[in-house]
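Aim 2, interim progress. The first record below pairs a target sequence with its structure tokens.
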Amino acid sequence: MSTARFLPYGRHSIDDADVAAVTEVLRGDWLTTGPKVKAFEEAFAAAVGARYAVACSSGTAALHLTALAADIGVGDAAVVPTLTFLATANCNRYVGAEVVFSDVDPDTGLMEAEHLEAALARAGDRRILAVYPVHLNGQCAELNAIRELAEKHGLMVIEDACHALGASYRPDDAGEAKIGAGAFADMAIFSFHPVKTIAMGEGGAVTTNDEVLYRRLMRMRNHGMTRDAEAFTSADLAFDAEGAANPWYYEMAEPGFNYRASDIHCALGLSQLAKLEAFVARRRVLAERYDRLLAALAPLVQPIARTPGCTPAWHLYVVHVDFAAAGVSRATLMRQLRDAGIGTQVHYLPLHMQPYYRRRYGPQELPGAQTYYDRCLTLPLYPAMADSDVDRVAEALGQCLKTRPGP
């Protein structure tokens, strides 16, 4: 067992400014749904180039809100790449809709337009309303081609951008756009879990340029209620004899959820957002160092393929390992690295292989996702890592595989 400092696969980076920002809220007049929420939403929208941002309690809540805002429900379905976290698919099940899983590229883990087209062909007579491209590890999907195909089939595009805050995309025929700006999608969702690029403890956001979607997101985040007098429908209850709105009155047209973010969380998020560019830049430096050091371990170990047109913001550093050629199982390698003080993870078990979805939809063959999953291993990556930490991970990986990393 190693006595060296343990390196988890991901970790938040909190400094004195973050602590001060939260302390200020705790000593103030608002703990939830106060000025810090609005300030964070405005700053976040500006950071990604979107017109609107709606902060909420988690990335999962953000996904659920998009399904609600898109009016996806019973009798409908959405296409989701099978290589993603549970919540991307589950958000559609929350509203009673079905999920059609798409395959992904075996080298990047990303859904491409051809995978979406194949999923639509397999969907039969299901009424598909939306597609959820997932930006995996910090790289973005080919949004222009996906958007074109979605428009052809009348689908809403909702980006799962939890891994890609700070990334940008430049297709061949258009200028560069930040992920979340809405250049190729109707909505985008983000997560601020502690291992993500910025942390709020728990937290999420939806960005959009559509005012109708924005207002619906805002209502559904807060129990489905509104205090906007122009939206009131029960005039006898809402207004006094002079036609003025009753000061206590609010109205619920449909049930929503308590998915509000607190001022405590948004104060931390606002402080973290000020460091976004620095965090992204440091993650890129660390990823480049991994690339150089691990080159000597090829072909046993290779970084995931890079996607054209994307300027990544690395959330995870994932390698593909030829476990059979190395003569070691993934589980054994992970335990050996843990004994050396190095945490690793697998992102992700494809969703069509999860027991719930296997029972619901039966066995499915999605070979690209299977190939990616069979080889993938996530190594430590977070801004507080020193260059020497990367060296240590590369050296330990080489020793476990009985080879040595390069300079």
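The second target in this work package is listed in the same format:
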Amino acid sequence: MPNLLIVDDEQSYRQLLSLVFGDAGYNIKTAANGREALELLKAEPIDMIVSDVRMPDLDGIDMLRELRETMPDVGIVFMTAHASVEAAREAFKLGADDFIEKPFDVDELKLIVKKALDKQELIVENRAFKRAQRERGSIKNIVGNSSKMQAIYQMIETVAEVQSTVLITGESGTGKELVARAIHDRGPRAEKPFISINCGAFTETLLESELFGYIKGAFTGANTNRKGLFEAADKGTIFLDEIGEMTPAMQVKLLRVLQERRVRPVGAHEELPVDARVIAATNRDLKQMSVDGTFREDLFYRISVIPISLPPLRERPEDIPELVSHFVEKFCKLAGRSVSVSPKTMGMLENYVWGGNVRELEHTIERAVALERENEIQPERLPEHITNYNPDRIKAEFSLPDDGLNLAAHLDNLEKTYVIEALKITAGNQTKAADLLQMQVRSLRHLLDKHSIRTLSAKIRSGE
């Protein structure tokens, strides 16, 4: 139950309120003045204070003033027989929760105290939520002690303090959003919003509405004004994931926002100022795309003021044991269990080349923890493609012919083969096939057009 401190120089009020709140289930402490209350607060945990304003030695307002220097979160409700506008104004300025005039109805005072406690609880929960959000993206959640990861940690610390635009590149599953969150959380904008959006998950029209907002009547269904994500991220950070999937028209609009630091909601005539740090990410080669004309060169240079390239897991295999331990601990905690990894299983995990990078490893460990019923994860809990992986056999299968080969044509044919196989496995479902190939649906459709097999999905579904 809440710990309540009653402060009043009149013994009769201390006795009355001790009885009233004690019967209501509160743990009661009392003090005869502000000085006595401050001494008690040093030794006793208190959730809420009910205090008179005018008292000898140290009155309620001066007590609160000193209290806020060391205990800014303790709630307080004032009561006085000498109510005045100035006293109330000063109390609220210092953070008092409420003010009631003597004589008062005890039921009303109980309600006021209950509301003040509820408010304090919300404040504590909100602070804990924000702390959890920051910790989720903090550096300690980016696992690995290899030299490549140490360089990434150093870069995060360096760029967190500046406000330049950052472009994070790396294969899918390397942890680009974790790095973006860490940059935000270790910088001066940490207490402000971190807003994330996957640019490849929206059509051009929807992406514009999401980023810039819209006004009532801008289009069918726009029944109210809606704030865009750039506005929502004001004074904070907006993370533009998969920015390479953005259409040319959207690239132009984004470039203008980055240059002018202003957004125009869909349907509006006036622009709004925004102050959001931009961190972008992609698994595509934007430099080559700018050469090919599929990504604006001026936008590329605008978003890549500070580039960060994340290494794939195959380039830092020494981090695999630490990552495995991290994920085992994470999923055991969620499942309320405790398991370890057998040496043979760990050997297979270290031997495998993780095409899906850290994300694939995480999903593998999640599956293994869920399936393992003993105290040690055995190889049988791993997918077959991991337990059957043999790098020597694969090397032999992909050995270079004596007379060489046309690498571009070979890779092109290999790409087409995998696309067709994915469509066969998923019965022609392009969304599932894209997931299987760990790419966006839009990228898969590009490959279907590239290899002139756009109609293959329909043929597979029809059984041709």
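The chain has four domains: 3-132, 149-311, 314-394, 406-462. This observation will shape the mutagenesis plan for the next reporting period.
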